[in-house]
Amino acid sequence: MPWEAKGVNQMREEFVRRAQSGEKTKSALCREYGISRPTGDKWIKRYEAGETLNDQSRRPHRIQQTDPKIEEIIVAYRKAHPAIGATKIHRILTNQGVEGLPSAKTCNNILKRNGLITREASAASTPYKRFEKTFANQMWQADYKGKVKMKNGLYCHPLNIIDDYSRFNLCCKAMHGETFEEIKPVMIGLFDTYGLPFSLLCDNGPPWGTSQSTGFTHFEVWLMELGVLTMHGRALHPQTQGKEERFNGTLTRELLRYTELEDFEDSDRKFERNRQFYNYERPHHALKLDTPAQHYTRSDRAYTDVIAEWEYPEGCELRKVKSSGYFNWNSQGYFLSEAFGDKEIAVRPSKHPGCVSLFFRQFRIGRIDVEKRVFTFKRAYLIQNDPRWTDT
After folding, report:
1. Which of 29, 100, 316, 340 could make an S-S bridge to 346, C-beta 3.0–4.6 Å?
2. pLDDT in tens, 35-54
3. Which helix (H) or strand (E) holds 48?
4. What is the pTM of this model?
5. What are phi and psi of 173, to 5 degrees?
6. How far is residue 86's CA from residue 318's CA, in Å, rounded to a whole number?
7. CA dihedral 211, 130, 188, 220 (to 10 degrees)
8. Among residues 308, 286, 304, 306, which one has the least CA distance to residue 295?
């Protein structure tokens, strides 16, 4: 029996009276009126209590208003940090000991009500699911943000390095260029402060690598001497360095979009202030709203500028690489890289028939097809525990 055939309230009264008269069972009447048993019980209960059978407002009976002073704190923080979302603002203010905070959802409503949320900001705050390493310093990710023009008319190249596991920002520094000579002392400073990572993920551009098949860079060889594996993302696949790309975007949204950089000194001051905020105050969705500093610990692999001699196992023949990047094997010259100039490499038979493998310290760096006299690959791999064997 459709409820629209008569007035809704009239049908509800009729249902209740028939149920009370015992004309039919309650279940049979519910089926006849096309309602559920709980709905029928609800109307009977209201009728017996003398309450109206009209539809009631679903608005909460008691609405707790947020203290205006608390709302002012939330709004002020958002204005000071326009790219920080409601959930993170709620966690930050909680960590700062602010009492009387509403829920994160209410904080979001407060920001909306005050016109402080845009569609762009909402999209930027959407959490991403990332794959990460299992402990701190297992891998660092490094990248240049791209040149940024300063008020003095010059450009700086922000160098950003983060720990893959904890997202801890190890370095955010304004660089003059992207060369090995300039980045080497910066890396040494990081190694002195945080110890050595096991691997470093970067792109194929300078100073990390080369997009051409000409061998290795001085940066890669230097890190190999320190026992650090350099890994490169696939060309035209920035998602390989997803966390680093995410950090670059965060730096743009939360600092560069709202701040002018005067010169190199001013840039470094502002980058360092933002780095401290990012590491120690700003919650991270991927860390369940913890800060990166809560998950990062210093590496126990200490840096030293003394490169120890390396002993190769039996069966290896040593060859010295010329300053031109060539070395000789079986009266044939092979180009490896100028970066290995005046350094010794080891050669030994490969498991692949007709081939020999090349080694530099604990890294396999290439394989040569002796019959064809060509390299079959030229890339650094750790002899043991190379992360690429287990990572997809």
Report:
1. 316
2. 888 888 888 888 888 787 77
3. helix 37-48
4. 0.71
5. -135, 140
6. 61
7. -30
8. 286
